[in-house]
């Protein structure tokens, strides 16, 4: 790290001290190719964690399409463009038919912000219900919807129009894996918040697998019940698919499909542009009509030709390379391997996920469930030294998150699992 100390100091001086950086000894990554990243020393890393590079870093088909378009035209969406309409149509074909209109933005935060605004127009209400460890982004409104931030270190606290429902955590929560009715029971909290706030809640928003909240799959029937309660109370149901969507969960293309529900608004981000700033809000025609109230909507970069061509190509690559099926098979293989490691090392207490959206929780002791924070950081650091990039998440910072580019293969998974086993042995965990 010493050779980077000057660059690190310069970075802090000119771009702020709170822009976080991965790893105690930071990496200087200079090149990416599919699931591999390369540093300035020529070392190769298997990327197990960067999900925005959905079809792989610098995927050649995507890069070529982007190069062609950027050399031809990039401007705002105030001119007619085939790319804009064609991509919107292709995106809509992946979604249930109730979702009919797409608004393009440049980041997940911006998209969530717009989704909330649209739900407020539609309902004439202001309040929003979120899950209690959620993260929905970094714009001011998105931060207000993110307990992970407003309740966290340096947070500004909860706004009066935000309501927090309990996260349905089957490992740590009140209702656990052994309770077949957990989904219904967790939804009661949502119902009670609605009863206490009649006519106030414009929208309920959650991820369809909790990401920053700890890589938590939702219990069966959870969203079905939540959406029923929200709709009965006149609110709008928003699915934040910024991390979960676009084939990653394997069994389905969208996370909400795992719960057998149809949201009124779906928010997209990270994977759809493969690392290029592209995000979207997809809404029902009724919500779009309410938003179209005379005020112009314009977004300088939203829907620009380079973004549209990028998005279309990413979608085509997912389909032509059958990445959803690949994520399912590789993810199942990976989780099997992780469960083997769990059986040998008591520090791992839970392995969970769908497809290539996987979490492994680490505790000091299985009875107290005390989070093994220093320990997990040591594991992440050692794995990095062995060439595997991982990270942590969760309200207690003790969940190993594994969300590699979708081209991550079984050999990568087997290697990662073997090294994890060795690192845990080395550290006596
Ligand atoms: N929603 C979720 C679920 C996220 O995880 C994130 C980013 N981590 C966002 C929204 C915000 O997206 P962005 O960083 O692109 O603004």
From TrEMBL:
<dbReference type="GO" id="GO:0008483">
    <property type="term" value="F:transaminase activity"/>
</dbReference>
<dbReference type="GO" id="GO:0030170">
    <property type="term" value="F:pyridoxal phosphate binding"/>
</dbReference>
<keyword id="KW-0808">Transferase</keyword>
<keyword id="KW-0032">Aminotransferase</keyword>
<comment type="similarity">
    <text>Belongs to the class-III pyridoxal-phosphate-dependent aminotransferase family.</text>
</comment>
<protein>
    <submittedName>
        <fullName>4-aminobutyrate aminotransferase-like enzyme</fullName>
    </submittedName>
</protein>
<keyword id="KW-0663">Pyridoxal phosphate</keyword>
